[in-house]
Write the structure tokens for this entry.
Amino acid sequence: MLIFLFILALTLISLLFYIVRIIKLTKLLYSTAKSDSYVIILKNSKILYCNKSIKEIFEKHGIDINDFKNFSYKKINFYTNKYPFLKDFFEKLSANFKEKLFEYETTISFSDESYKIKFRREKSKTNVYSVLLITNVFSNIKEYTDELISSIYKIPEEFFNLTTSDTSTYELVDYFFNFLSSQNIIDSLAVGIRQIDGSINIIYGKIGDRKLKNFIVKDKTLISYVIDTGKKLYVKNLDEINFPKEYKLMKIIDKPYSMYGIPLLIEKKVFGAVLFEKEGINKFTLKDFHLFEILAFLISISIKLKNEYQILYKSSKENLRKAIIDPLTNAYNRNYLYEILYKKPKKEKSKYKVVIFLDLDNFKYINDKYGHIYGDKVLKNFVKITKRVLRRNDLIIRYGGDEFLILLHNSNIENSESVIQRIRKMVLDSEFKVDFSYGLMYFDPEKNIEENIKIVDRKMYEMKSKKKT
């Protein structure tokens, strides 16, 4: 009888411990779960509880819940290989499998959704209880926004001070890299600025053991792609990236990598990009993205305030001028003509109402008689006077040799004729006098530039022929 009572007491105590364990698990769930949360409870290697909605979310993202019905340590490698986006979780679980208590929390992002994952595994003397809680981040956006804002507080105050100090952008980015690397958030970081010729200057790069500074990349690479598209880009696995053929993937380390790219902007114009990378598949969360975007913003500010941007801006302006301005006369050249008439929107092109084609009379004779230096002065004088007569939005273009094209903004034939006569009078009254023949017509934006010039050129030759008769 005493033995029976002793066995009964042990049974009741075991049952009591079981009930207490279930109560603790229940409290854990109800303290964190929302109406759109998904829950699994395991006792030892068996699923004790699983709500229906988690099956649907598993199926949506290619996870077979049957794989976890006999969960064991031996199957961890199987899970890691089959579900690489959960590799980090299973590696940490494997390392802590014998611990009495293991807790894990992360956020996993898919193309259209993100999920916050909480896992708790607790061992008693005889049983192991595990709870997996999955919450849809976007359904709990207010709560998650608070967490995103909290990521700002992780940024050392010194970052903001360095951004506006005389510290070089290279040193600032290096400081960022060391901070993110020490937090095990990234393994690699690169900041590139687009040059006038389309190449990329990697002003800072830390990739594996390599450190780059002002390294020029002429090929179109991943950083070029982010700059060209002007959009943020998250690639869960660089080995599986799919972008246009003209771009090349330059991988220094032959391992799967996650990458988050952010375009750098100044006054809403993209001038560069920063790439954050970490070894492994799908390693970044929304909180990481938020932190990266703050740091990218600080890098943009730094570049704007430092010499890199000033040099870039001045170089860009000078190269643009060389590309579109005739060096002798300071009139626009043919490059600019094709730029405005082909690349500008139709609405912009239609503002040019009248096109005039001019040819200086007897210019070859002037060159032969007085020399090319005098001839150059004639050309420069003609352009200088023409610019004084034209309005701010009108254009004069040196088409070639002694031929010029004038585009008049919102004008008509009568006013245009008056403009030409004013130019003629002022040139003939100047030191380097020369007469000219011309043709003029309304500009037709529906025709290409060659067709317009061909028509007005014919008109100019008609005038030149009349002068000879």
